[in-house]
Amino acid sequence: MNTAVHDHILVSQSHLKQMIELIRMASDVTEQLDVMCKIIEEKADQYSDIKCLAHVARCHAENWANLFDVDRESFEDQYFPKN
Known about the structure:
Blueprint: E1 3-6, E2 9-12, H1 13-43, H2 49-79
Antiparallel strand pairs: 1-2
Helix pairs in contact: 1-2
């Protein structure tokens, strides 16, 4: 089993791969949430509270998806470089 020491924590390669997969799933879920909120926002009445809430939720979901993608790519590049 391959291991890596980072910040004095022993982590196995399989745990890192699991973590990266969970981050990928979180990114997918937030992207789906972004799409659902966009649909709600488009179909809601122009000045309704639902439209405003959907817009705020969509912005947060988009930010989370981007953050998860950056984290996933960073971990993949750091621990599993494609040489």
